Amino acid sequence: RDLLRDAWGYDLAPAPPSCGDVEFRGQAKDAWYLVYDGRLRSAAHATLAAEGLGGAETAYRGVLMACLALIQANQGAIREKELYRQLSAIDPRLPDEPTQNPKSARNEVDGVGNLALLLDAFKDAHYLVLSKDTEDEPTLSLGPRALVDVGRFQICQFQADALGHAEVDGAMIQELADNSATKDAADAADVQQ
Questions:
Q1: Where are the alpha helices (DSSP H) in 30-169?
Q2: pLDDT tens for residues 75-88?
Q3: What are phi and psi of 188, to 5 degrees?
Q4: Measured distance CA(123)–CA(116) in Å, rounded
Q5: Which residues contact 69 (CB under 8 A, 6 or more apart)?
Q6: CA nearest to 145, candidates 27, 39, 47
Q7: Alpha-carbon gap, residue 27 to 100, rounded angstroms
Q8: Are residues 141 and 71 in contact, defined by beta-carbon separation less than 8 angstroms?
Q9: Are 111 and 129 within 8 A, CB to CB?
Q10: Tens-digit pLDDT profile for residues 19-47
């Protein structure tokens, strides 16, 4: 692990046990992710990492970040129908509701690809976790890979950039830090019991 970090700047990160009220299960619970060492992340690194990407990979990352930002803005979970509606508000070419058939032509958008298949890919990669809410509606939450590979602070930075802000609001950063410290303290207490 040290060699991986020192030679290539990557690290292995375990999946966190939960995100808010969503407790990770199955493969997402025991997964490890190869991530770029957080101490080395920067805007310059993001630019370098995106250099030379094809249109499909750029669209994949853009839709992923938009989904993560919308989910985080909704306290970490959003109904699937609402996510479609909000993505369609960002780009009217995107469908405003899920279709019965994910391969439907309605999901295909030039320059973006198939939205339903992209969301499935995000779920398969553990960026998003699908569950049902109290009214049995499909709900998407931030997945373990979103937390360890992207991170809440990077999602806030994306939100600020998308809204044209010069920097992330300090109150948002403080709220994330407070929530993280509270969660870490609770996890430590659970481990000691």
A1: 43-50, 55-73, 80-90, 115-124, 144-145, 152-162
A2: 889 999 999 999 99
A3: -65, -40
A4: 11
A5: 155, 158, 159, 162
A6: 27
A7: 26
A8: yes
A9: no
A10: 656 666 665 667 776 676 655 555 555 55
Structure token pair of residue 187: 């996890």
Q: Does an H or E element contain 176, and which?
A: helix 170-192
Nearest Cα to Cα of residue 114 among 137, 93, 129:
93
Q: List b or e across 85-118, with b for residues whose CB sees 16 or more CB atoms inside 10 angstroms.
A: bbbeeeeeebbeebeeeeeeebbebeebbbbbeb
Amino acid at 127: Y
Distance CA 70, CA 146 (A): 13
| CB contact at 8 A, 145 and 126 | yes
pTM to 2 decimal places: 0.71
The tokens for 18 are 């939960």
CA distance 179 to 99: 36
